[in-house]
Amino acid sequence: MVNQSLRSRLMFMAILPALLAALVLGGYSLVNRLVDVRDTNAQRQQLVTDSFAARLESTAVTDTARQQRLLRQLLEARDVRAATLEFTGERPSLHAGPRLRPVTGLNQEDGRQRLVTDTSWQLTRDINPGEPAILTVEFTRQGEYVSTLEGLITLILVMVGLMLLAMVPALRFSRQLTSPIGEMVDAVRRIRDGDLSMAIHTQAKGELAELETALRQMVSALADAQTELQQNVDQATQDLRETLETIEIQNIELDMARKEALKASQIKSEFLANMSHEIRTPLNGIIGFTKLLEKSTLSPRQQDYQGTIHKSADSLLAIINDILDFSKIEAGKLSLEHTPLNLHDLIEDVQTLLAPMAQDRGLEQAAIIYSDVPVNLLGDPLRIRQVLTNLLSNAIKFTEQGSVVVRAMLEEDRGAEAIIKLTVTDTGNGLSPEAQKNLFRAFTQADQSARRQEGGTGLGLAISKRLVEGMGGEIGIDSSEGQGSTFWFTLRAERDPKQRPSAHLEHFRGRTVTLVETDEYGRLGLYHMLSHWQMRINEYHSLDALMAALDRGELISSDFLIVGLPAHPEKQAMQPVLDNLAALGQPLLALSNNPESVCRWLEHYPHCQVQGKPATRQRLFNALMALSGELEGKELDAVREDPLAYPVSVMVVDDHPGNLKLARVFLEELGATVTACDSGQQALDAFRYQTFDMVFMDIQMPGMDGKTTAARMRELEAPGCHTPIVALTAHALESERRDLLDSGLDDYLSKPITEGQLRHTLEQWVMDQPGGPLAEPGEESEPVSDRVFDADLARRRAGGRQALADEMLKMLLDSLAEDRPAISSAFDSADQDALLERVHKLHGATRYCGTPRLEHAAKTLEEALKTGTEREALASMVSALCDEICALEQLWQDQGEEAASY
Fold first, then answer.
1. Residues 6+ positions from 641 with CB-CB distance below 8 Å
2. What is the pTM of this model?
């Protein structure tokens, strides 16, 4: 009703009373009609029943034919359906018409009794035509239904007629009312559209005529207002046009000035960049030759002059680098990388780099990295290191005493992305709020006197701010005068999905260590490192407290004793303390800002080691491994095997970069000159123009395999010359080994290769020192472990070199994401050659990475492929290999550096 038109409402108001009246009157008439029909039918049926009952009673009881004829005549009466005459004796009943319907009820009105069925009435009469009998007559209700329907149709026709009669005056009245209103609405719309020239004549009467008059007056007033407004607009437009002309002239002048300023800025940036490069070229020569001069024999005065030149050149190079970075940023040419980085290693590298500077000033350094911080990230390690170096060097530079602490904490965890906050806190003099305002502006420093003392361009913090903002972070300072400063910046970095497990955890799990460190932050940093390795730690806050516990006999025996010495230890006071601690017989590690002097104090104690501050994870790990007496730990700092008797030239050919690097490292440490080739064609090109004493050849390579490459090399050899070629193969079958020797190769080595194998092979084939047969590292020598990753095995395979073991593992992990789908695809497409090539390459890589389960699965599948195993059996082996790849990937993704404990 709300949205209906006026005409619809008028029609509704006219029809509704007529409809209600028709319903009331028609309903009343219909009800009366139904009652009359019902009463009339009941009376008529009663009369018919009584009439025939009298006639049957007057008929002789023996005249059955007449009785039957009267019953059939009864059927011809209106609404009679059936009739039955039942005798009370043994005489059979007489019936006419269809069978009587079953009785469902009894109806008694006005003293009349009727039996009710589903569609009819039944009337009964007792008669006695000479013998008692009952006359039953059944009347159908169809006549009553027809009368009801006729009354209903009559009612509907009457209602429709009344509504049509009511609509005629309603339509006429609505037309007279709505036609003028419609014309006025059209006129208002035209006025809305700006047409004020139209005339309104609707011939309306009464209130509508008054509305029409008011509307004409409104149109006249609007026309007058529009004329006045147009005059004002014309005047304002003229004034605005004059103003725009003035502004246009000014804009042209400003645009010319802007272009000149941009051109000048571009020229300045290009000049700075070019000059920086031009100055760096001779400056690098100066620094290089001062380093060479430092190695020559110089007098003390000359050494002093040389040192001054070197320091000045380094300072000038730092200034030039700042100017170059700033010019790149200004010119928009500085790009950021997106590569894997280890935040822990990055922080320790910066601290180690600036350690001499902090030690010269007698400052303590510490790094506190909280356990929830993800250290394996994707970002620009060079620029993060640049920002951290700038902040840390400034903190050291402007701190006279105390400590400088680097903290890393997780600000926000967003799943695949993390926001990490790094802070550098010093105990310097702090900065006032006024000095902090301009701190991150270019070519400015908070303290001009400090600038004259320390030097610099004032660009470091400005560059750091631009770099941090370019990486999506923020940088700032919290400082108060006399209370030190905390510089902080945030990193928005992605987590590295291929983070590498570390082999450090399991060696020291459950071992005990006594930790002594006077500096609170240095002690906290060491505590975090040791607790991350799951060691049990006993802390002492000073050497005095430790010695007091020792004197009282309360010092708890532990596996290791780590002692942090003061910044400037005096020999007279400190050496007796160290002698007493060394006399305990416990493995002792001393941390000092002056490790050379302290090392001389403890040189007679084999169970003691000295390291410089700040301690890093790798150096601390190596020292504890060496102190623990384990073979791997000893090898970490020990001198490698003695070099060969004389230098030899060796070629190594392997398509896997990890295997190639490992063999090159082993051979170079033996004193050999190594040429590394990653394909058969590259090896042929090198062999064609250079003479080698020996060639180590991988057999299964893409493109040209090892046997083909060896055959081509034999063709290139000069008459009378023979270069030993030794095959490198990952667990070849016995038949394959015989085939290798028959194809022209001189010997073979099964992966994983060791330094001893390489030395033995070189001495046997090159140096004419035939020794006993070198035992092959059989499969039973290293039983298959149930671990996904075995750190001890990885380090043994890398010859005790932890860094090399980590790098080999990293190469394997990088290749897994490509190997698993490639192996599955090759199996699904039934490409046996591609499948064998992939599995062989993966098997070779696993031999050096401490992944026994993956290595065993790859070896089993490779042997099955080479022996022609049925495809049904291969399916389970391929599935097992893919499962082991997933297990290794899931290991470092879920546990990160703690994966080694798995």
1. 669, 670, 755, 756, 759
2. 0.44
